[in-house]
Amino acid sequence: RLDKTKQDFLLPLLESGLVIMIGATTENPFFSVTPAIRSRVQIFELEPLSNQDVKEAIQIALTDPERGFDFPVELDDDALDFIATSTNGDLRSAF
């Protein structure tokens, strides 16, 4: 956790380019990150994948010999729907 004191410590390092910061938070950065830090970084908000996105990724894993499974797998539409729905947009949990 980076409280205000720790964020203030990082500020000159970020400004000088000595430090490149990559961070992730489940908190709203507009409340948890100081304005001075926010003005020097890019903020990307990641959204959960749609069920269709998950299904497409699973289909690629099932059919692409180079990037997918290295063995044949059959999955019917009901199972595919169930897996896609139960991931809640997090593709990592589909596999």
From TrEMBL:
CDD domains: HLD_clamp_RarA. It comes from the Bacteria. InterPro entries: AAA_ATPase_RarA/MGS1/WRNIP1, P-loop_NTPase. One of its GO terms (molecular function) is single-stranded DNA helicase activity. This is Replication-associated recombination protein A. It comes from Streptococcus pneumoniae. One of its GO terms (biological process) is DNA synthesis involved in DNA repair.
